[in-house]
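# step 3/5: fold
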Amino acid sequence: MSLQPPSNLNDALYRPGVGIMLFNEHNKIFVARRIDSRADAWQMPQGGIDDNELPLEAALRELKEEIGTNHATIISQYPDWLYYDIPEELAKSLWNGRYRGQRQRWFLMRFNGRDDEINLETEIPEFNDWQWASLDSIVDLIVPFKRTLYIQLLTQFKPYINQGNV
């Protein structure tokens, strides 16, 4: 799977969004299990970018909307948009079939809050469980169609962890 779209594809086929790799003081990654999936579908916080919204603004809003807190410090940003296709059966039901996948700006953030501030019972709940996962286990937890993207994120952001910057 390529993380960049083929040159013959239009960005309009990919929903613009953001993602957040959120770490705690033990360098564990926040992942949550989707409430709307029959599979054991874990993911990092992510979501769409609203009209006239900057990616960083969207990332902080999505944290608050999805996990009830945005107490985080921005450490880094992935330098490019990352693309992934969703399975065809999902593409038909999501976003009224308008998109074939997502293009996302990703941010590495350190969680500055306490675990008891994390609240999945938000206005529109998206998750029913969460955990801090090790770097070594994160890819195996994620749905297969996002794994290549997560490997790319780990490759980009791991030096910050190894340097103790997270």
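# step 4/5: annotate
The CA atoms of residues 75 and 165 lie 8 Å apart.
# step 5/5: archive (pending)
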